[in-house]
Amino acid sequence: MPHEDGAAYFPLVATVSLGAPIVLDLYEKVPGGGVTRENNDTEREKEDQDQDEDEDEDGDDARIRARDLDSMTDAWRGEPTFRILQERRSLLVTRGSIYRDFLHGIAERERDQGLDANSICNWDLLREPERFQCGWYERETRISLTYRDVLRVAKLGNTMRFLR
């Protein structure tokens, strides 16, 4: 699900990808959090139907989770604005407007498709573009090391005194 790292981190994140490649989708934030997806009604109907099937004696908890999901999905557009193909052994640094003005996420799927110079914004920078010439890649295990500069750690340090 698309998300942002938030204000607790300095607006720079470095990610080292090991193992298999992956496509990172970037979504432009919708001003005011409004929904712009054309198929939003259909998706909400499906979520409501799934919600009805999942309800048990804790139906209120399930409705709260669905409402929270709605508020998160309302902040992004349905199609990614940019797609970045992170090759194995690659470093991706996000900062500036990409960090502030976009949500990022990795779609839950078994295969990344539509891989070409028109859909992948860093295609010209790939070390092995021939590996993706068929236009798709079957996902494999990927390990991601993410480095962030946390701005406020004093409170966390004080609450962890019990570890000493």
From TrEMBL:
<dbReference type="GO" id="GO:0051213">
    <property type="term" value="F:dioxygenase activity"/>
</dbReference>
<feature type="compositionally biased region" description="Acidic residues">
    <location>
        <begin position="48"/>
        <end position="60"/>
    </location>
</feature>
<keyword id="KW-0223">Dioxygenase</keyword>
<feature type="region of interest" description="Disordered">
    <location>
        <begin position="31"/>
        <end position="65"/>
    </location>
</feature>
<dbReference type="InterPro" id="IPR032862">
    <property type="entry name" value="ALKBH6"/>
</dbReference>
<keyword id="KW-0408">Iron</keyword>
<protein>
    <recommendedName>
        <fullName>Fe2OG dioxygenase domain-containing protein</fullName>
    </recommendedName>
</protein>
<dbReference type="GO" id="GO:0005634">
    <property type="term" value="C:nucleus"/>
</dbReference>
<keyword id="KW-0560">Oxidoreductase</keyword>
<feature type="compositionally biased region" description="Basic and acidic residues">
    <location>
        <begin position="38"/>
        <end position="47"/>
    </location>
</feature>
<comment type="similarity">
    <text>Belongs to the alkB family.</text>
</comment>
<keyword id="KW-0479">Metal-binding</keyword>
<dbReference type="GO" id="GO:0046872">
    <property type="term" value="F:metal ion binding"/>
</dbReference>
